[in-house]
Every structure is written in C-alpha cells, then in structure tokens.
Amino acid sequence: MIKEIGKKLWIPGTDIYDLGCSTGTTLINLCKEIDGSACFIGYDNSIPMLKQAKRKIKEHKLENRIEVRHYDLNKNLTKLSLKNASIVTMCLVTSIRPPTPKGWDH
After folding, report:
1. Mean pLDDT, residues 59-69
2. Could you tell me which residue, 96 or 64, shows the higher pLDDT?
3. What is the DSSP string of 13-78?
C-alpha cells in the first residue's frame, strides 16, 4: 500500500525518505514504482539491518538510486537531514524481545 500511495503523492524532483528502513524493502518497492529521477534515502539505527539493505539494494541493481544511512532514530530527530522531501515514511515494528545492554542486534 505504501508504494501505491507514494506513487500518487511523490512530487517530481523531490526525494523520498524511509525512517527506520530496516532491510530496505520499502525503499526498493518504492524505487521500482517511481520515476528514475527520484532519490531514495533510508535511515536506520541497526548496522546489521543496513548491511542487509545494502546487499538487497545491490541485488536489485539500485545502488545509484537508493542510499542508506546510519542514524539513531531514538535521538534528536531535528538533526536528521530530510532535504527536499515530498515523502517520508516510517513504519513502526514492535518486538516482544527487549533490547540487551548492547542493543537490539545482540
């Protein structure tokens, strides 16, 4: 559903952001639906998730259109760069497993 809404709401010449991009699935699906001039940027606080996202982006040959960045979304979001955005997505996924002192990835 996000890709259908995104396709309708995207303004040509603007960028698309995914906060909490995880393994990049939403970015990849949006990228396949939206014109080649769109730039896609994903942020996630999990290095292992970003590594998987980069692998998937490469498998889909979308490295020139999608960029993923490390950022702790639990921190000050006003410092997050969302320049030239017409779409910003954020899908909340909850977990029943609490984080360890080292974080969610351990």
Report:
1. 96
2. 64
3. T-EEEEET-TTSHHHHHHHHHS-TT-EEEEEES-HHHHHHHHHHHHHTT-TTTEEEEE--TTS-GG
- At which residue do the structure tokens 């906060």 appear? 19
- In b/e form, how buried is each residue of 50-60, taking b as 16+ CB within 10 angstroms? bebbbebbeeb
Three-class DSSP category at 106:
coil
93: which 2 tokens? 């996924």
Q: Is the pLDDT of residue 95 over 50?
A: yes
69 token code pair: 């960045």
CB 45 within 8 A of CB 73: yes
